[in-house]
Write a structure and sequence with these properties.
1136 residues; Rossmann fold; Penicillin-binding protein 1b fold; 7-stranded parallel sheet; globular
């Protein structure tokens, strides 16, 4: 039983509650008390007419219904509570609704229709929005059926895959979203339509051996499950939806009417399908009729097909049905009711446990049963332990203690109860002497619950050269081989040569020449990115021109390296301020962070702290998608700086972004003696002058603003840290001023899509870089649609967003016609409110309009690209870009990042006038953006942008020819070597795995990893591995994702492990001759030689030749394990 459910019996102390539960009627209820009262009427009040009956609770829109369902779930657990949303798309559009909405709708209806009063299960509660009530639902006989998979079940994998297709699931190579499944050997991945995570089904023959939840971000398994319900991802069974699916690809004039596609006569009103004894409760009576009227107006305006009206229920019949069937009608506006249930919101003024203690003590002394709810048991138990003066008690779920003490007449001890429950809001209800406070309301903060383990994710610290993996390699790409030049990558080919089977890369050169390259040389291959959109001719095998080109480029790279090092190497050699280790204030400041850091955020924070505590100036780029937590990294660095008595200067490219940062910094630092000020157009000249004077005199600790802060009058008394947000958006002169500042102080730059120049510095090792690529829990990729402008599509997109309680952006990038566009949209969507924003507005007026939209006072913001940075509105989840073809790729990616900043599915429509009007480059840009929809794709966008725009001009005219000839990646590797050498290092000292070949089958079987992109990725990871641990983790990951690793792939990994170990031991060359494995150069001390002789039976050590030879069998089956052992032995003695 839920820890909270016993508290529902407190309503028995209220005569009005007992009367309302039994006889029904209408009542006023405070918003904060609404979920508790509804839950009590359904379950906790003695003599309730709703007891033992299924229930339908009606809310206003989908957002309200979803939030109410979550609250009722917390109060009524384990009683099933289902949320039934609206379809999300109009029936007449012929578009299939999103899989997760279908799953929720079908699961809700099935819960009602299939409930058996004679069964032992508790009756279901379904929370439905008014709009969902107006949409008819298909007869249960028309729908696909749900089914359950359990560990130990016997299934036929082919039949199971067909069942999923019939249920509306899409078969894909890799599962990323609800309603998808993938099959790989004996493993089935599926993302059930109603679940919060995907599931991996592992079969042994025909038996389900295990069920595991897995992260769609990392594709790694997480926790074990015993069973999983597969809810339908389509409203209709396969035989009933075939015609409708065909119609979606037809033009409007060719599409048949809806009645020709769907069995309209077998669709029913939602409440008609509910059992007769279902009790109906109106959660907010005042919101139902307006929501129904607005939706019906949209329905009538949209339909050209009169038959489609039969798929909806008009408002009047719904209102009449509710008037007849509603047992309870609640309202939070009108007080003209027989009964009232009032409560105060549960907000306290506390910031810490110490401050919260007297607040709770006051409630207890006033006679309130006081309960604090924590979503995590550990947090609650720790808090209960830390309350010194109060008798705090942790209540275990299922404990009846709360009910016993809550009953009338029970003796009450002065105790605060801590329970485990997830609540959005709490209340203080004088009428029943009950106070329930969620932890985030106790401490004046909302705590987002993220489980880092649910996302997985790797480290965010990127080592030199590791960014190359972001440039995806695909069949047909032009590639560069370090030794042979430019070729076309034709894919992988598995060949058997001399009785040994291996995977080879097929490369096509000029003159129809082909090279089959062993996969262990994959690290020599890079995707070609040149100085422009085209590529030079393919190289001719055997010619000398490629070597000549490389020699010229290497000399040029050496010259360029010297120039670049003037700034970046000088910074590394300079002595900077070494900040002290974290103080008590710093630790307290971090504890007040209202969210849970992701693993990458933690890595980034530690990297920045390490840089600041080192005695050299920091220059670190923090790269992460919008909303991934870069600002918090900067905040902690700023606090650390101010805590040591030094000043912070933070630059943002736009006024709005600067204003937003100021709000964040001021709020977080308000409890400490640090002064935060900002300079922007939104402040008067006098205010700006005062802020700058305060900074120069040392009275201001943190100054935030735009490029205005780079003026000569901004000096700072003791500047210690410079933070630059979206560095790529500053102009040339501003960047030159930034470069001069960077020589003196620690610098953090932040970007979602770094410009290629920034990438170059990072790739060449001239700048430290940290990637935050783990998305927050619940974040979902933005659904991106690229197509021609269609007003019907625009209307439907905007209307759908409003219906689900959200807001939308409409980007029109011409100030001259933006007002005209807004008027056109108002005519298109008459029931919606629009606000217009652009950079030529008066500063105060712009701020007023932006704040108006931020507060939710407008449904749509019609704006120019001013929204590209600095708009953080989680409830805005639809974006329409009118002329997407006029924007650059990184800019489009940044703009798209304005939506998708919450757990709600976001949609981006990138529209253009007509296909014929698109340039080839614009087509490539839009195609790339539709490719890179996954979370954390900022780096891929930057690399793709580099490819589309060309890299050479960013390095200067002199270098562009070399970039064009060799490609960006190979040229950058040369530059990296040159920088290393110019900095006094020896590039030859870098460890590399040795070339080693043993006659053993080593390849990836086609039936093990069937899709090529994953195969390329695995080969690149194996060939590029430099640590044995990485290869071990890769083997575990492969077993998890694809099943037991087959022997040829195990051999391939083992070979790379041997290469790595021999390389780490210092070897450069390995050869087989006369039954001997000879390794050079290996220099061993006397004690190491003795250790090696003890470990290896037959070893020959030649110190004078820096050579070690191991006797190995000649038979391939015996030689392979002997070679692996020799590598183990050699590494063991050289590494001590």
């Amino acid at each position: 039983m839920s820890s909270l459910r016993p508290l529902l019996h407190h309503l028995n102390t209220s005569d009005d509650a007992v009367r309302l539960a039994g006889a029904g009627g209408s009542a006023f209820v405070s918003q904060s008390l609404r979920p508790y009262l509804l839950a009590g009427l359904l379950d906790g009040v003695d003599g309730s007419a709703a007891a033992g009956r299924p229930a339908v609770v009606v809310a206003g829109d989908d957002r309200q219904a979803k939030e109410l369902a979550a609250d009722l779930r917390a109060w009524l657990h384990p009683r099933p509570v289902r949320f039934c949303p609206s379809r999300g798309v109009a029936y007449e559009s012929h578009l299939a609704p999103p899989a997760h909405l279908v799953g929720l709708r079908v699961a809700a209806m099935d819960a009602l229709v299939s409930w058996d009063p004679d069964a032992d299960a508790e009756p279901p509660v379904v929370v439905v929005s008014a709009v969902a009530l107006s949409e008819k639902v298909p007869d249960p006989a028309l729908r696909p059926t749900s089914f359950t998979l359990r560990v130990g079940d016997l299934v036929d994998l082919d039949e199971l895959a067909q069942d999923l297709v019939d249920a509306g699931y899409e078969r894909v190579d890799q599962v990323d979203d609800r309603g998808q499944f993938a099959v790989r050997g004996g493993i089935l991945d599926v993302y059930p339509a109603t679940e919060d995570r995907a599931v991996r089904v592992d079969l042994f023959d025909i038996e389900i051996e295990s069920l595991r939840g897995f992260s769609t971000f990392t594709q790694r398994s997480l926790d074990d499950l015993t069973e999983i319900e597969i809810a339908p991802a389509a409203e209709l069974a396969a035989e009933h939806r075939a015609d409708a699916e065909t119609a979606t690809v037809l033009d409007g004039d060719e599409r048949p009417d809806i009645a020709q596609l769907l069995p309209v006569d077998r669709f029913h009103a939602f409440l008609d399908l509910a059992p007769q004894d279902t009790v109906v409760l109106l959660a907010a009576e005042e919101e139902v009729a307006p929501a129904l009227a607005d939706h019906w107006q949209d329905v009538c305006a949209a339909f050209h097909d009169t038959d489609a009206h039969h798929l909806y229920v008009a408002p009047d019949p719904i209102v009449a049905t509710l008037a007849q069937r509603a047992h309870v009608r609640l309202s939070s506006i009108s007080t003209d009711h027989d009964m009232e249930f009032r409560a105060q919101a549960a907000d306290t003024a506390a910031r810490t446990l110490k401050e919260a203690e007297p607040e709770l003590e006051k409630l207890v002394r006033s006679g309130y049963r006081t309960v604090v709810a924590f979503p995590r048991r550990g947090d609650g138990e720790r808090s209960a332990y830390n309350f010194a003066r109060l008798k705090a008690e942790w209540i275990v779920p299922g404990d009846t203690d709360l009910r016993d003490r809550g009953d009338t007449g029970a003796e009450r001890a002065p105790t605060v109860h801590f329970v485990q429950a997830r609540l959005r809001d709490g209340f203080v209800a004088p009428g029943i002497n009950l106070a329930v406070i969620p932890d985030h309301r106790l401490f004046r903060r909302r705590k987002q619950q993220r489980e880092d383990a649910a996302r997985g994710g790797g480290k965010g610290i990127v080592k030199r050269g590791a960014l190359r993996s972001f440039a995806d390699l695909r069949t047909g790409d032009i590639v560069v081989h370090e030794d042979h030049g430019l070729a076309r990558f034709a894919g992988f080919d598995t060949k058997t040569v001399a009785g040994v089977t291996r995977d080879y890369l097929e490369l096509e050169y000029a003159g129809s020449d082909k090279v089959f390259l062993p996969v262990d040389q994959l690290a020599k291959i890079s995707r070609y990115v040149g100085a422009g959109g085209s590529h030079p001719p393919l190289s001719k095998l055997g010619g000398k021109s490629w070597e000549t080109l490389k020699s010229r480029a290497r000399r040029a790279a050496q010259e360029l390296a010297g120039e670049l090092l003037n700034l970046y190497a000088e910074r590394r050699r300079r002595t900077g301020h070494a900040f002290p280790e974290d103080s008590q204030w710093m630790r307290e400041f971090e504890d007040k962070f209202p969210w849970t850091e992701t693993a990458d955020q933690k890595d980034a924070i530690e990297a920045v702290k390490g840089d600041m505590e080192a005695p050299r100036p920091m220059d670190r780029l923090i790269c992460g998608d919008v909303g991934y937590g870069k600002t918090e990294v900067a905040l902690r660095a700023a606090f650390k700086c101010a805590d040591d008595g030094k000043q912070v200067l933070m630059l943002a490219p736009t006024t709005i972004l600067a204003q937003q940062h100021y709000g964040s910094f001021a709020e977080r630092m308000k409890d400490y003696p640090f002064t935060v000020a900002h300079v922007s157009r939104f402040r008067t000249p006098a205010e700006q002058k005062e802020a700058i004077a305060g900074f120069n005199e040392g009275r201001v600790d943190v100054l935030i603003g735009t490029h205005r802060l780079l003026g000569r009058d901004v000096r700072g008394k003791d500047l210690g840290l410079l933070v630059v947000d979206e560095e790529q958006r500053f102009g040339v002169k501003q960047k030159e001023l930034l470069r001069q500042l960077k020589l003196k102080v620690d610098v953090i730059a932040m970007s979602a899509t770094p410009i290629p120049r920034t990438l170059q510095m990072s790739l060449a090792g001239l700048r430290d870089i940290t990637v935050i690529e783990t998305p927050p829990e619940g974040r979902r990729p933005v659904k991106t649609y690229v197509g021609e402008y269609d007003e019907e599509l625009v209307k439907q997109a905007l209307t759908r967003e409003k219906d689900r309680g959200g807001q939308a952006f409409f980007l029109h990038n011409r100030v001259e016609t933006i007002d005209e566009t807004a008027e056109r949209l108002r005519g298109l969507c008459p029931g919606m409110t629009f606000e217009v924003a652009h950079g030529q507005l008066d500063e105060q007026e712009l701020e007023r309009r932006m704040v108006s939209f931020l507060r939710g006072e407008a449904d749509v913001l019609v704006a120019t690209s001013i929204i590209e940075s600095g708009i953080d509105i989680p409830q805005a989840n639809t974006l329409i870009v009118e002329r997407a073809d006029m924007f650059g790729l990184s800019q489009l990616y940044q703009i798209r990042g304005r939506v998708g900043r919450s757990s709600q599915r976001a949609y981006a429509y990138l529209l253009y006038p007509a296909a014929a009007a698109l340039t080839e480059e614009a087509t490539k840009r839009l195609s790339a953006l539709s490719d890179y929809t996954e979370l954390g794709a900022g780096f891929k966008v930057a690399m793709r942008d580099l490819e589309l725009r060309g890299a050479g001009n960013l390095l200067g005219d002199e270098q562009s020819g070399h970039v064009a000839a060799l490609g960006f990646e190979l040229y950058m590797s040369m530059l990296e070597e040159a920088v290393e050498a110019a900095g006094g290092g020896d590039p030859d000292d870098a460890f590399e795995p040795v070339r080693l070949d043993v006659s053993v089958d080593a390849y990836i079987p086609a039936n093990y990893i069937p899709y090529e992109q994953a195969k390329i990725d695995v080969h690149r990871r194996i060939a590029g591995a430099r640590e044995v641990a990485d290869l071990g983790m890769l083997q575990d990951e492969l077993a998890d994702r694809f099943g037991e690793v087959p022997e040829p792939l195990s051999n391939l990994i083992a070979l790379q492990i041997a290469r790595v170990k021999l390389g780490q031991a210092g070897a450069r060359n390995v050869s087989f001759r006369g039954g001997l494995l000879t390794v050079t150069p290996i220099d061993l001390e006397d004690d190491q030689q003795a250790q090696l002789r003890e470990r290896a039976d037959d070893v020959k050590i030649e110190p004078g030749r820096s050579q070690v030879s191991f006797r190995v069998p000649t038979a391939p089956a015996e030689r392979f394990p002997a070679v692996l052992k020799a590598a183990d032995d050699l590494l063991a003695v050289t590494r001590g």
